[in-house]
Here is the input.
Amino acid sequence: MAKPGLDGHDRGAKVLTLALRDAGMEVIYTGLHWTPEEIAAVAQQEDVDVVGLSIMAGGPVEIARRVLSEFEKRGASPALVVGGIILGPDVDVLLGMGVDGVFPVESSIDSIVEFVESAGRKREVIA
Here is the structure.
């Protein structure tokens, strides 16, 4: 779970991190203000199955594009999930560029946990 950029709103990321942990998953929460390069490096070092980006301050398409590019540079291929304030038109753009799951703020925690549980085993899109 990562908070890219200057976004300082991390309550949702922390709540989701605890929900994923309570569902039996190992979760690494990077904290605030990480760059796409740092996020991809940690994902590769830790050999994670899923990377979750919590974006509450705008720019999800550009941030996701940069993270996916960093994955490609490193030969890493975890599933990428983006959540937070995601405008309607951005959902299709994100999914079209290779993001595996998009969860706007109104998404239920249960639906996110269910998706993340399956994302490490198979790729499916739930938005």
Summary: The chain has one domain: 11-119. Confidence is low (pLDDT under 50) at residues 122-127. The radius of gyration is 13 Å. The helical segments are 11-22, 36-46, 60-74, 88-96, 109-119.
